[in-house]
Request: fold
Amino acid sequence: MKQVKFLLLPLFALVISFGVKAQDINAVVEQFNKGTEAIQAENYKQAVTDLEAAYTSALAITDEDAAETVDGIKANCKNTIPQLYSTIANSLAAEGKYDEAIEYFNKSLTAAEKYGNADITKESVAEKVNAIYSAQAADYAKDGEFDKAIETINKTGDDEAIEKIKKFVASSYLKEAQTAQRAKDYKTAIDKTKKAVEYNPESESAYLIMGVSYSQIKDYKNAISALEKSISLKASDQVYYYLGAAYQSSGNNAKACQNYKKVSDPKLSANAQAQMKVVCK
Reply:
């Protein structure tokens, strides 16, 4: 982790004059030094608290004899506090504490605007926050919390990142559909493929599984519709074969013949040829 760097004052009080003013100045120096010690101990949240207190107290010091010291404290605080918030945010993000990390990145921007720190901008913070949303969405997707994944990634407004998560979700639903189909749970397979194409309308594989599953429950109208959609996305011998079979089962021999004729894969062509003798008359 990159440690914040700034000028450290000596860890002792400055004796400028007798009375209340000296006590006030010394209190500011002591508070500032506590902040530097907290940074050295990597206790960044405590460092922020101490440095903000030191800055606030320094604003009230008007003694000209202490101007150099006070101005140094204020300058260091203005530069360091926003960076500390950012450092805390990075640590939280690395720990997977995404919501808290976003909170601290926003605090870093607020502090930067307050103290005039030009290193932290709206653009730089937005970039980091979007990166957190992307990481959080990926975690949700991997855990199967797909609705949360989509909701979170949409916060980025990044079309490429949104599309990536949607395709991951679609792929996950497709795997569930394949598992259901192998188990002959065709209704579940259909439901899962519907979810898959909701997130990836260009998935020819999802429409293929959907069409075959509809055929298995003898819903040939929907089977044909799904298989025709699969072919429109990517034609293949497998889809032509199943589409021919769906048309044949629905009583449309002419369409069945047309699709069987397009099958050239040796693994399927023998069956297709056999069915063509029935439907191609």
About this structure: The domain at 170-279 is CATH 1.25.40.10 (Serine Threonine Protein Phosphatase 5, Tetratricopeptide repeat). Residues 67-94 form the longest helix (28 residues). The chain has two domains: 20-120, 170-279. The radius of gyration is 33 Å.
